[in-house]
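Continuing the batch. This is chain 6 of the set; chains 1 through 5 are on the previous pages. Same settings as before, nothing changed between runs. Recording input and output for traceability.
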Amino acid sequence: MPATCQVRVLGGFGVTVDGKPVPNHAWRSRRAADVVKLLAIEAGHRLHREQVMDLLWPDLPAEAAGANLRKAVHYARRALGSPEAIDVEGHVLVLWPNGVVDCDLERFDRAADAALASGDARACAAAAALYGGDVLPDDRYEWWAEERRAKARTRHTALLRAAGDWTRLLELDETDEEAHRALMRRHLAAGRRREALRQFEQLREALRERIGVGPDAETVALYETALAEGAEPPSAEQTVAVTLANGLVAWGRRNVEEAERLAKQARALALDANLGHELGEASTLLALVAYARGTWHEQFRQEFADSVRRSADLEGAVFDAHLCFQEFYLYGPEGHEGAESFGRDLLGIAAEADSPAGRALAQLLLGEFALLSGQLDEALVHLERSLADAEEAGCLSAQSIALERSAEAQVRRGDRAAAVALLDRAMPLARSSGIRSHLIIRIHGLRVLAAGGLVEALGAVRDGERLLAEAAHVCDPCSMGFRIEAARACARANDLGRARRHLAEAERISGLWQGGPWSAALWEVRAELRRAAGQTTQAAALFLEAAELYSALRRPLDEDRCRIAAGVR
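Output for chain 6:
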């Protein structure tokens, strides 16, 4: 009687042969299970042996990869309880060629295709219920599973949309604008105007925090319709919300003048009504406009001078809005040149206004300038002052960055224990701040750098990867430090595929802003990869390239590190 092999890949991995589950300990090696997973998710449950070798051991020569494959197949057959479990037909591996393979992903695909082709909402809902979760979620960092995972996830989303299951769609993605609009229309049709307005606010908050954009024009128009149906005029918060949303629509359409006009209008309304959150949003939009025009310094100085004379809530909202831009300013194409004079200018403004939050931000900028310039003792002095002022002002984001930068200075001094202690203090502050999507990933990057050894560093990399996989939004520029440190650590651990994935992401982000310290860091990571692959001559040349770029940017500690790695110091 042919064997029946049931394979579960949706929501997790599990195998049952003739009704008997294969226990986890039966897989003598991870790659034995990986071979079964690969064959299970492939059409026909078959793959050429060279494809398997390339997917599982891309960095090994053919002979070594072939030996690993033979060993993995041997252990996979033992786990499945039969030498017939994986057959080799010519050069093709086949899962249970003489048995019955029942894979939940295959069943889901068939049901999804039929339901979507029919267009029947009930059939689509029934097919969506077969989706037990993402494909192989425990293998989220294995790129060979990503294509099937993305395809199944897209099918599941399409089924929910066709079924009109908007609530479930929002559970999966709270930024799904079509789902929010559908629920807004449903509320309005039922006479639930307040619920429709709340639905818009939920969308606006999700888009702001997770993606950094605003609702599109169709959604804003629906919100304005809901406002118009009320007996009372819109509140100040609602008026500002509409103004900001239309400003972001204008920005998305590259209508810079209109975006600026609406941002200034929203800012004035927020100031009049003492709305700190909305003031921060208006400041962010103004900062985007100023950056596009090359006038960010002037815009920030003007807002800084105005903000330090206002309430702590309004002041903090403006500073949070500009902090990410300030960090980009330090790491952008021109490096940190001019940061010291700019910081002292801001410090003078803050001192005159007796603003602790203003002093915190100015001291932070001075501390970062000193750190990047290799003046570690001076950096720590400024950062300690920034932390004290930020604590007095209750500015969580500034406290987090001051602690994070102090940790970096301690790593450069060789005191890793002190760095870890500072990062432990920074993490809860980052999580509680209004810009957590910017700050938490930065701390993960410093945890990799501060690790005491390779095992600890890889653990920190996994923690950061988990955040990137699970968080709905992480600021790309703020993730650069983690991407670079993760790629470096993975290269040193000889996990070159993983290192290349982090490098590719870093290159994508850096490509938006050519030049600067990021470019130098990327050359350094490429050098690490070449060194790990045994290409010492090429690695030395790339380390020197990085050193020259760091030298031009006046980053002496980074330059020295690269020259030492190249063997010239």
